[in-house]
Amino acid sequence: MNRTDRMEYEYIKAIKSNPTNASLYNDYAVFLNRYRKDDIQAIKYLNRAIKFNPNNGVYKTNLNILLKKQTQKFETRKNIFILFLTSVMIWIGYMGYTNIMNIMSLFILAQLVLNNKTTFSKNYN
């Protein structure tokens, strides 16, 4: 077991032995973000920390940072998808493909992606 795995094991053990300790949830979330690069799980644990200590500004700040990071990732993916979709549509036009089903399928796919409002968590100010 490497050092990172050992740290995670100890965090989980501590949380199991003290499941209402908000500080443990926050610390484990920071660990998940920094060492495991698992922002989604980190958000989950920060929400638990805030549940047990709703007035803690550090926990709320940590959560907001991760939510902003996830939103930026989503926006980047959305922009890449728009670029890809535009390229495909240009290619369809260039190749002379006028099959209405191809164009409609791309339009529907674009609408699904662009209208998807993924919510990770409540944003705290």
Quote the beta fraction: under 5%
Q: Which structural class do the helices and strands define?
A: mainly alpha
Question: Which spans have pLDDT < 50 for at least 5 consecutive residues?
Answer: none
Mean pLDDT: 84
Task: State the end-to-end distance.
Answer: 39 Å
Helix and strand run: HHHHH
Number of helices: 5
CATH homology group: Tetratricopeptide repeat domain
- What is the class in the CATH system? Mainly Alpha
**Gyration radius from CA atoms, angstroms:** 21 Å
CATH architecture: Alpha Horseshoe
CATH topological fold name:
Serine Threonine Protein Phosphatase 5, Tetratricopeptide repeat
| Proportion of helical residues | over 70%
Basic shape: elongated
Tell me how many strands there are.
0
* Major β-sheet annotation: none
Number of domains: 1
Gist of the model:
By secondary structure, the protein is an all-alpha fold.
Structural notes for this entry:
This protein is about 80% helix and about 0% strand. It has one domain (about 5-115): Tetratricopeptide repeat domain (Serine Threonine Protein Phosphatase 5, Tetratricopeptide repeat), CATH 1.25.40.10. It contains five helices and no strands. The longest helix is centred in the middle third of the chain and has 39 residues, at about 55-95. It has helices spanning about 5-15, 20-35, 40-50, 55-95, 100-115. By secondary structure, the protein is mainly α. Helix 1 packs antiparallel against helix 2 and helix 3 (about 40-50) packs antiparallel against helix 4.
List the helices and strands and how they pair.
Blueprint: H1 3-17, H2 22-36, H3 39-52, H4 57-95, H5 100-114
